[in-house]
Amino acid sequence: MTYIAKPKLHHPQLPTNKLGFTRRDYEGAISTLCAGCGHDSISAAIIQACFQLDLPPHRIAKLSGIGCSSKTPTYFLGNSHGFNSVHGRMPSVLTGANLANRDLIYLGVSGDGDSASIGFGQFAHSIRRGVNMVYIVENNGVYGLTKGQFSATSDTGSKSKRGVVNTDSPIDLVLMALQLGATYVARSFSGDKTQLVPLIEGAIHHQGAAFIDCLSPCVAFNNHAGSTKSFDYVRAHNEAVNSLDVMPARAEITADYAPGTVEDVVQHDGSVLRLRKLATSYDPHNRIAAMNYLQERHAAGEIVTGLLYVDPEPKDLHAHLNTADTPFNQLGDGDLVPGSAALEKINAALR
Amino acid sequence: MPQPLERTNDFVIKFANVNGSGSASANTLFAKSILRMGVPVSPRNIFPSNIQGLPTWYEVRISEAGHLGARGGVDMMVAMNPQTWDKDVASIEPGGYLFYDSTKPMPPSKFRDDITVIGMPLTDICNRTYSDPRQRQLFKNIIYVGALSALLDIDLKEVEKLIGEQFKGKDKLIAPNIQALHMGRDYATKTFACPIGLKVRRADKVGDRIFIDGNAAAALGCVYGGATVAAWYPITPSSSLAEAFARYAARYRVDKATGKAKVAIIQAEDELSSIGMVIGAAWNGARAFTATSGPGISLMQEFIGLAYFAEIPAVIFDVQRGSPSTGMPTRTQQADILSCAYASHGDTKHVLLFPEDPREAFDFAADSFDLADRLQTPIFVLLDLDIGMNDRLCAPFAWDDARRMDRGKVMTYEELEAGKDFGRYLDVDGDGIPFRTYPGTHPTRGAFFTRGTSKDRYARYTEEGGAYADNMQRLLRKFETAKRIVPKPILRRASESTPIGVIYFGSTSPAMNEAMEALEARGVHMDTLRVRAFPFHDDVIDFVLQHEQVFVVEQNRDAQLRMLLVNEGGIDPARLISVLHYDGTPITARFIIRDIAERLESLNLAPRMKVVS
Question: Up-side HSE of residue B412: CA atoms within 13 Å toward CB?
Answer without folding.
Answer: 6
